[in-house]
Amino acid sequence: DAKTTQPTSMDCAEGRAANLPCNHSTISGNEYVYWYRQIHSQGPQYIIHGLKNNETNEMASLIITEDRKSSTLILPHATLRDTAVYYCIVRVATYSGYALNFGKGTSLLVTP
Amino acid sequence: NAGVMQNPRHLVRRRGQEARLRCSPMKGHSHVYWYRQLPEEGLKFMVYLQKENIIDESGMPKERFSAEFPKEGPSILRIQQVVRGDSAAYFCASSPDSSGNEQFFGPGTRLTVL
Predict the structure, then answer these.
(1) Which residue, B43, B26, B24, is CA-closest to B104?
(2) Rounded to an integer, what distance in angstroms lies between the CA atom of residue A105 and that of residue A5?
(3) Which residues of A touch B106 (CB under 8 A)?
(4) Contact, B109 vs B90, CB < 8 A?
(5) Can you point out the beta strands (E) in B3-108?
(6) Which positions 80-109 of B are in contact with A (Cβ < 8 Å)?
(7) Fewest C-beta atoms under 10 Å: which of A4, A41, A56, A106?
(8) Which residues make beta-bridge pairs with B101?
(9) Residues of chain B with C-beta less than 8 angstroms from the C-beta of A97
């Protein structure tokens, strides 16, 4: 699976959009981009995933650049409960249920 | 629909003892993953199981660690002769199919080895 690079930490004011970048310059054509988050001491929570088209769900939007070398997770209106570590993961989505390889992620702090 | 359940939530063992961690997947899920998280680190994959089968154990330490997912009952991660370096949070996740696209995680078991 391709390696990802994320900033160690970011701050965001409550109510503003949080834009979390991820660099995956070695991504290959059959690899998807996944985002999970881990709120302190809890199990990770799935947010969103995509291949090349932008994706949106009730939690967030995922913007993937045309060359797929980077992506941005957008939380449109951050709340204090969005404070967490956010993990960008790249892997092949084959029907063999393979593992997620979590790096160190970005620690997002949402402030009042 | 209850989420992934893990027990115990906290487990304390002395060096040399055995640790048994249990994971009950979400209803209808037959695919289970175990991950370990050392302090200040990201999660590391250990093993992927389907009912009665180990599919991928590439992340499991070669000795002392084993996992099973029997036809009936929870998945078990077993650590024999624990050492201090086994102290970590162990998370279980489940998914409804083999794509693993969306894995639902449990609250974790925090193992402390004295």
Answers:
(1) B26
(2) 8
(3) 43
(4) yes
(5) 5-7, 10-13, 19-24, 31-37, 44-50, 53-56, 65-68, 75-79, 88-95, 104-105
(6) 89, 91, 93, 95, 97-108
(7) A41
(8) none
(9) 31, 33, 48, 50, 55-56, 95, 97-100
B33-88 tens-digit pLDDT: 999 999 888 889 999 999 889 988 888 999 999 999 999 999 999 999 999 999 99
The DSSP bridge pattern shows strands B10-13 and B5-7 to be: unpaired
E-strand stretches of A1-112: 9-13, 18-23, 31-38, 45-50, 55-56, 61-64, 70-75, 84-92, 106-111
B59 lies within 8 A of chain A by CB: yes
Give me the helices (H) in chain B, please.
Answer: none
Of B35, B48, B102, Cβ closest to residue A46: B102
pLDDT of the residue at B68: 96
Residues of A with CB below 8 A from B108's CB? 41-43
Report pLDDT digits (tens) over B5-16: 999 999 999 999
